[in-house]
Design a protein that fits this description.
Keywords: DNA-binding, Phosphoprotein, Transcription, Transcription regulation. This is Stage 0 sporulation protein A homolog. The protein has about 230 residues and is of the alpha/beta class. Helices cover about 40% and strands about 25% of the residues.
Length: about 230
């Protein structure tokens, strides 16, 4: 589920966008404190930002430049100030697209979908894997859950990559071991158990309890929704 942060001070528009995007399966959140935009952005860790230009305290250009200093997340500007100068300014400040108000909600969704495809996919290859709110980024081998990014070891990442790419299916211990270690290298079967148990403890610490299920005598799979 992609997370979308809405930075819009018109509560009617913000609430309408939030409700509509949630219906499309996105995790949408509207900023409610416009003096704390960066703090909210960091905590929510969105995959896309919808940004108004005219805002309390600082304008959308300011917040876009602040976001750009720490993230490459796509930013789509929303504004009734849709003259060429504002569109050029939005792009120059790091914006990726511009939607003029008033807008059609389905057009907004279409632009969001296109932006997410371009940003997080390449030639049909998925660059993130998501399950139960946990997002595994295949680009930087990180795991994010509820706005918190978790450090992963090489084996942590490979285990999650295999299991999350085949969620709903049991992955045999043999297949996991082949992914983790070279075929021509003998590894004690207990080594896999140690690695999985260590990863489970790390997942438990961030609230992902029972994320990896054991299918006795067969292998592992990512756990069902709790």
């Amino acid at each position: 589920m992609y997370r979308i942060l809405i930075v819009e001070d018109d509560k009617t528009i913000a609430d309408t966008l939030t409700e509509h995007l949630c219906k499309w399966g996105y995790d949408a959140k509207a900023v409610d404190d416009f003096d704390q935009v960066m703090e909210i952005f960091t905590a929510f860790d969105p995959q896309l930002v919808l940004m108004d230009i005219v805002l309390p305290f600082y304008n959308g250009y300011h917040w876009c430049s602040q976001i750009r200093s720490i993230s490459k997340v796509p930013v789509i500007f929303l504004s009734s100030a849709s003259d060429n100068m504002n569109i050029i300014m939005a792009v120059n400040m790091g914006g990726d697209d511009f939607i003029a108000k008033p807008f059609d909600l389905d057009v907004v969704v279409a632009k969001i979908q296109a932006m997410l495809r371009r940003t997080y996919s390449f030639q049909g290859q998925v660059s993130i894997l998501e399950h139960r709110g946990a997002v595994l980024n295949l680009g930087d081998a990180s795991l994010t859950f509820e706005g918190q990014k978790t450090e992963l070891t090489k084996n942590d990442f490979r285990i999650l990559e295999v299991l999350m790419s085949q969620k709903g299916k049991v992955v045999s211990r043999e297949d996991l071991m082949k992914k983790l270690w070279n075929d021509d290298c003998f590894i004690d079967d207990n080594t896999l158990t140690v690695n999985v148990n260590r990863l489970r403890r790390k997942l438990d610490e961030i609230g992902l309890n029972d994320f990896i299920a054991t299918k006795k005598g067969i292998g592992y799979m990512v756990g069902e929704e709790q």
